[in-house]
Structure formats: structure tokens, C-alpha cells
Design goal:
Helix content is 65%, strand content 0%. It is an all-alpha fold. The protein has a domain of 65 residues.
Length: 142
């Protein structure tokens, strides 16, 4: 019920707006008897010419865009980051050859072993070694 009143007001405003537009521009557009068959034919040919010109421009722009796309793809390839810089190389499938500088010893003296050997019998020493190693590793952790 209330909606009908709003619809009537809307159409009343629309009719008034159309009447004002026609009163302003109506003298520029004579509608009665303006289009004779000869003028209609000319109008159809002119509109057909505009449409065909528009289509030619669109087709030409598509061909130019495809031609430019090929050149920009090669430019993008020239400026792209190589795959070798983004990914680690694959690991080799073979073990590298290890060349010994000298023959391995059959017998080690105490003087030869002393820089590398720590007695496992002193647990306080090993706790200190492990603590310093862990502290050194944890310094690098953010």
C-alpha cells in the first residue's frame, strides 16, 4: 500500500524530468518527418562505416598487442633470475674420489694421539666442553 505511493511519486518525478529535458533540447531534435527514406539510407551507411572503422581499429590493436607481447616476453626472459641462483644444484650421484696425502698409520703413539684425545673419565671436564659448545651454537640462533 505504502509502496504504491512511492512508485507513483517516482514515475511523476521521472515524467517531469523527461519533460524538462525535452523542453531544453527538443528544439534541436525535430522528430516529426525528419527521417525521409533517403536520409535513413544515408544514416545506415554512415553508421555502418563507423562500425566497420571501429572493428578495423580493434583488430589492428589486437595484432599490435600480440606483436608487442612476443617482444616483452623476450625482455622478461632477459631480466629474469636464472634457475641456478634460486635453487641448490642437484647432489652428484657418485662419491668423490678421496686422495690420501700419506699412508694411514698402523700404530699411533701417545704424542700423536694427545691433541685429539680427552679422557672420558672426568665428567666435569666434559660438562664444561658440552656447555661451551652449546653456548657457541646458541649465539648464532636469532
Amino acid at each position: 500500500m505504502i509502496l504504491n505511493g512511492y512508485i507513483e511519486k517516482f514515475f511523476g518525478l521521472l515524467t517531469g524530468l523527461c519533460g524538462r529535458i525535452y523542453s531544453l533540447f527538443g528544439s534541436l531534435i525535430p522528430l516529426k518527418g525528419a527521417f525521409t527514406p533517403e536520409k535513413k539510407r544515408i544514416l545506415v551507411f554512415v553508421m555502418g562505416g563507423f562500425v566497420s572503422l571501429f572493428l578495423l581499429i580493434m583488430i589492428a590493436s589486437l595484432f599490435l598487442r600480440q606483436a608487442n607481447t612476443g617482444s616483452t616476453a623476450s625482455q622478461r626472459a632477459a631480466h629474469s633470475i636464472p634457475v641456478e641462483e634460486l635453487f641448490y644444484p642437484n647432489e652428484p650421484d657418485f662419491a668423490p674420489v678421496y686422495l690420501l696425502e700419506r699412508e694411514p698409520r698402523q700404530f699411533w703413539s701417545f704424542e700423536d694421539i694427545s691433541p685429539y684425545w680427552r679422557s672420558p673419565g672426568n665428567p666435569d671436564f666434559w660438562r664444561g666442553e658440552v656447555k661451551t659448545a652449546i653456548d657457541l651454537l646458541m649465539e648464532g640462533v636469532p
